[in-house]
Amino acid sequence: MKHDIPSPPRAVILLSGGLDSATCLALARQQGFECHALSVAYGQRHAAEIAAASRVAAALGAHEHRLARADLGQFGGSALTDPGIAIPEDREGDEIPVTYVPARNTVMLSMALAWAEALGAYDIFIGVNAVDYSGYPDCRPEFIAAFQAMARLATKAGINGRPLTIHAPLIGLSKAEIILQGTALGIDYGITVSCYQADAEGQACGHCDACRLRHDGFMAANIDDPTRYRTLP
Amino acid sequence: MKHDIPSPPRAVILLSGGLDSATCLALARQQGFECHALSVAYGQRHAAEIAAASRVAAALGAHEHRLARADLGQFGGSALTDPGIAIPEDREGDEIPVTYVPARNTVMLSMALAWAEALGAYDIFIGVNAVDYSGYPDCRPEFIAAFQAMARLATKAGINGRPLTIHAPLIGLSKAEIILQGTALGIDYGITVSCYQADAEGQACGHCDACRLRHDGFMAANIDDPTRYRTLP
User: Fold this and answer.
1) Is residue A230 part of a domain?
2) Number of structural domains chain A divides into
3) In a domain, B4, yes or no
4) pLDDT tens by residue, A27-38
5) Do B113 and A104 touch (CB under 8 A)?
6) Deepest in the core among A83, B64, B197, B217, taking most CB within 10 A?
């Protein structure tokens, strides 16, 4: 079977509505891709992120934006999906934080792979970051490389000899570097939501891990933080 | 962080309700695993399979059975999820059949991986078969090996040095060999549903690809086919 490559080429962009994935979408657009943005509802508490994803997709010129459910919440094991586990206010040493969601990036990339194959897309973008999330096994470059190797065997595309690429353009950047890149691309980070416990209006708590990383990033980049915090970090 | 291994060891078994995955569950039980059966609702037409999965889980002594949704149907591209694509009655040469669902096994294994990590399980069973489904990229041994390599990097377990194993015990067997193994283990295949268009009572159509493969398997194994067909294959 022949696979014609659409022009412009299509890419699937995993879009959470946070700062990193918004930057990823802007980078994919800059590279000339027709961007198909995918948000995965995996049972996370922070539903405000998904509302933010719709705003980000529209603001950054995604061709379309879809929401797909993948029911990880029922398995538990994470503060992001289990209301019985408190979201910590500080990093706890070298332990993997309780905000880690088992196999989340594997599941999200797999969903993106399914859509990519149906679309005839050979490029998937994910905004993982190995610097800020050094404790997360599925944010490491070796994980991304292994997923790509698997994905190239998993689909018809692999059989047809046109390899699929998993792009993780932020993987080696600091939060400040990400913010500087995105700002140069014209992103209004005020519409993104990173907070693990944002309210329905997208207001950030100001004291969880994600808020601190984000605010420190703006400080280090010497750029005004446009985030609406309930209490300042 | 230390991970204590539960005793008996736990395994996640992907259970569709069909003949292959039922055999897989029986094999995992025989190997001494506490079996956590997972059915993934990915938008398939054949909802009767999921009802069958509950019967199979109970009959074969699964410790528990869960249903998780992973919303692949909206992406289209398969006769199993798109009512606009007819289910073929015959194999069409060497083409990958329209019943192939993009990235289905990748998504189902990823969901199983998420549950395995939350459970402290290091073993996942999937009933893929490279003989009958030679056209499906994600039924090949090299795909399973690549998924396992990726999975070992994707989770805390990988970081902690205890490797995860993806078991595909049926991958090299013919349908008749699978049926002979399962029958020796005492499986009543009458409660399983393989048909792509079974009715609500689990009655099989008798003429789709899955029905033909199944019936031919019983014939080749010289075992009475207990399937309730609407019309005989």
Assistant:
1) no
2) 1
3) no
4) 999 999 999 999
5) no
6) B217
